[in-house]
């Protein structure tokens, strides 16, 4: 399930554990399909020793290789920006919490699933309007699992999750990005060996076409 929260500057995505497994899997499946099609073209070109086919095959692999390298570089750059962008977005969303809007559902879902409370820690709620409007209490989504007596009052810290959500969500995003980058890097290496193989086949084809003249 995916929660999307829009504000004037950023888009904050809240994913469940399922999505963190689906994203890398989708990348792998997508690349696998493309590689299957390219593989068929490459096999046909190799069997027929077609220079045009080999050239087209090489061109496709080079384009995909360049795209994968670019994606890897952008992924590496974005890793350093996750913390700042995520904290800014989360603070904005938490401030909009009112108990009924879409931001509320996203925050409640995040806090209950990750067993956290607030952006950095539970005290962040003291600076949010909803806290003051509801008798200085935090949402029930901050309560620990099966804590049926939890009312959200800060006097019940033993029944509340006190750690913030940002660190946990950031770690999940970092894990997904790292996984995706490893997948991309792996396929890029395969493409590199593929290009070298095509060059070797093309060179052998040229040698076979050469007919020496004898006196």
From TrEMBL:
The chain crosses the membrane at residues 20-47, 54-78, 179-203. It holds the Pfam family Tetraspanin. Disulfide bonds join 116-150. Keywords: Disulfide bond, Membrane, Transmembrane, Transmembrane helix. It is found in: Membrane. Signal peptide: none annotated. CDD domains: TM4SF8_like_LEL (cd03163). The keyword Membrane applies. GO terms for cellular component: plasma membrane. It is a multi-pass membrane protein. The keyword Transmembrane applies. Gene3D superfamilies: Tetraspanin. Belongs to the tetraspanin (TM4SF) family. This is Tetraspanin. It comes from Cyprinus carpio (Common carp).
